[in-house]
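Run: sequence + S-adenosylmethionine -> complex structure.
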Amino acid sequence: MALSPVFRQLVDKRVVLASASPRRQEILTNAGLRFEVVPSWFKETLEKSSFAAPYEYAVETAKQKALEVANRMHLKHLRTPDIVIGADTIVTIEEQILEKPVDKQDAYKMLSRLSGKEHSVFTGVAIVHCSCKDTQLETEVRDFYEETKVKFAELSEELLWDYIHSGEPMDKAGGYGIQALGGMLVEYVHGDFLNVVGFPLNHFCKKLSELYYPPPKHTIHHIKHDSIPSVETFEIPSDGECDSSDNTSCKGAKKPNNSGIIHPSGKCINGSGNCIMPVDSQNGVKENTTQFPPKLVQLLDGFKASKALFVSSKLKIFDLLKEKGAMTSVDIASRVKASVRGTERLLDACAALGLLEKTHQGYSNADLADLYLVSNSESSLHDFVLHCDERMWPLYTRLELAVREGTSQNHCPFGKKGEDLFQDFYYQSTEMKQHFMSAMDSIAKVTARDVASAFDLSQFRVVCDLGGCTGALAYELIEIYPEMKVTVFDLPDVISNISSFQPSRQNTAQISFSSGDFFKDNFPEAELYILSRVLHDWCEEKIHILLSKLSAVCKPGSALLVAETVLDEKRTSPARAVLQSLTMTEGKQRSNLEYQQLLEKYGFTNVQIKITGNLLDVILCFKKVSPY
Ligand code: SAM
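>> structure
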C-alpha cells in the first residue's frame, strides 16, 4: 500500500491525537498509525459567525485543540510531542453549523431538518509539528479540511423517534453517526465516508506524504539504503535542505556508503547483511519491501537503551556535563573513573538515543538530559532512573519465573524482611529507604501539578494525602490552593525521614506530617482524602480494608481523589501501565469502569475520571449522602 510508508516514517516519533473520539482513534489505529491519545481541553467556543465559511471554523477548532495539547504536554507534563493531530467534524446545512444535540427535542429538530436533503460534513484537521528550542516550544501547523456530501432519505416520524430513542444521536455532530444505526438514514454519500465518521484518512495520508515525501526535483530512481529508519531520517526537509531530488540525501539522512552497498542487480545489502529489495513507489522512490520491522527493532533494543540510560545516570555523566559543558570522551572517562573505550561507546549510545549531543568539541547534554537527568535539576528523574535500575531491572530479569509461577519475585533479588513490599524497602537499609523515597519524590514532582489541577479542589480546606510519602503532592496543592491545609500520612519509617525532601523556598506551615499504618490506624480528619499511586499496589483484601475505612470516615459530601494510570477497557493501553503490571502479583491496574465500580461499591458517587495524558490519571468521587 503506497501510503503506509508515511506511517512508518512516524514510527520513532511521539505522535499524539488530541481527541477523545473513539471513532478517530479507531480509524487511525486500523490504518497502522502508532499514537498516544491526549484529549484536548480546548473548549469549542469559537464564535461561528466570525468565520467566512463553516469549514474555516472546523479548521480553526482543530488547530486550537492540537495547540492546546502541544502546549500542555510541553509545559505541564514536560514532554514535548513531535506531532499533535487535532480534528473537528461539523455538519452544515444551508451554511449553518449543526452542533451536538442538547436533548431529544433538539435531536428531533436537527434530524428533521436533514430529512430528504443533502448536507455537508466537514472535518478540519491540523497537524502540529513541535520542537523544543532552549526549552521553548516551537510549532509549525499544517491544516486542511475535507468535505463530504451526505443525503438523507425522507425520514418517517417513527424512524426518527426510534433513532432518537436509541440514544445514538446525543454525542454526535448533526445528531447522527453514519457508522452505526445512523447509516440507515443515509441515501447516498459523495466523498470520503471516513470523513463523515470523523477523520478524513485519505486526505490525511496525502498531506503527510506531501510533508515527508516532497515531489523529487528530477525523476531519478534511487534506493533507500537503511533498512531500519532512524530518527534523523524523519526530518521534514525544507526546500533548501535537499541537495538533490533524492529524499534520502536530505539533511540527517543516511548515506549509502555508510550503511549499504549497491549491487549491480540493484539490490542493496545493508550494513547488517540484510538484503533489501527496492520496489517503485508512487513518487518514483525505491522502497524496501523486506524491512526489518522497525517496531520489532524498537522492542529488541529497548533493554539496551534502558541499560545505557541507567549506567550513564549511575556514573553521573549528565551531572558532569551540566557542570563542565562539552567534554571529550577521554576527559569524561577520567572523571567518571572508567575505561576510555567503554565510556566512548556509552557516550555514543547516549548520543544515538538523543540524551547527549556530539560535536567536534565533544559531548554535551541534550535539553532532555539537562531537564530530567541532571540529579539536582528541578524536575530531575535521576533518582527514579536509579530506582528502575536497582529495583525494577532485577524483577524484570525474573519475569519468566513470575509468569510461570504467577508469584511476585520481589523476595528473590532483595530478600524478604517485612510484611509487604514497602516494609521490605524500608527495612533493608537506611540507604535503600532513602533511594526509594527519592525515587517516589522525583516522579511525584513531575506528576503532581497534573494531579493537583485536574479538578477544581478549592472547595476543600482540609486534605489528607494517604501514603503521601515525601509530600511532593502536598507542596503542589498548597501552591495552587493557598487556603488548603494538607496532612501527609505515611508509615513511621517514611515520616521520620522527610526532612531532606522539604522544598527550601516554600511556606510549609499549611503542611503537616502524620505517621501511621493506613490499614490499622485512624486517619486524620479531612474533607478530601487522596490516594495517589496507592490502590494499584494492593490485593483485593487490603483494598477492602482501606476503602471500607475511608468510606466509614468520610462524611457525606466529602471526597476522595485517586491518582492512578487508568487502563482502557481492553486493558491494553497505555502500554507503560500494562508493562508495569507484569511484575505485580498482589495488586493490579484498573480500567475506567473498574475504578468506577470499585469506588461505588464503597459508597462513593459522582465518579469523575480525567485522563491527563501524563503518567497519572485522576479520579474524583464524593461520599454518597445517606437517604436517611
Ligand atoms: N503517594 C505517593 C506518590 O504518588 O508518589 C507515593 C506512592 S508510593 C507508590 C506508596 C506510598 O504508600 C509510599 O509512600 C508508602 O510508604 C506508603 N504506604 C505503604 N504502605 C502503607 C501503609 N500501610 N500505611 C501508610 N502508608 C503506606
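>> summary
Residues 217-285 have pLDDT under 50 and may be disordered. Residues 430-453 form the longest helix (24 residues).
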